[in-house]
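User: These chains co-purify. Model them together.
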Amino acid sequence: DAGVIQSPRHEVTEMGQEVTLRCKPISGHDYLFWYRQTMMRGLELLIYFNNNVPIDDSGMPEDRFSAKMPNASFSTLKIQPSEPRDSAVYFCASSLLAGTTDTQYFGPGTRLTVL
Amino acid sequence: GQNIDQPTEMTATEGAIVQINCTYQTSGFNGLFWYQQHAGEAPTFLSYNVLGGLEEKGRFSSFLSRSKGYSYLLLKELQMKDSASYLCAVRIYNNNDMRFGAGTRLTVKP
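Assistant: Joint model of the two components:
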């Protein structure tokens, strides 16, 4: 398996622009997670899906952020409009149905810079 | 609320043993994970513990005390490539909601 795939790997944009990050989870995984990592705040869970349905979006910073999962093999995280404080590495992760020894597999991340 | 604490930085010598501690205060505890993250890379899974006690996997071991809200990651025979951040994470309730500590940056010196 290719693992979790994210695109783009790097994104540089200007304040006010719309940014869309993409993720393809590992085939067969029922859970998909979006995280944000910064030096100041560490790794933060933004939202996660189970079988394409958003379960908990309490970590989404504000209404400028939205996430969708139209099917089992694709998810997007959108920021509109983007702000400099959104600059971070955004990770997507996936896992199998919750079990006693399950773990999350992370994608390589998207490094976002908002100027 | 959820609170996970671990030291910010540690330094150790190649070939030595280092113990990275993690304390947590969470509701609905359902397992503790350790991840390794090299600079500029994604976190990778190291260990999982939910019942408590010691879990050993090669040079890495993890210990969990549920009653004390405490875990440690033990790295033996340190190698230079072990220089990385080590993230303690707690799974909440009966699902995959994960909360991460800020990470401990380990530097291994010759």
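Chain B touches chain A at residues 31, 33, 41-45, 48, 50, 87, 94-103 (CB under 8 Å).
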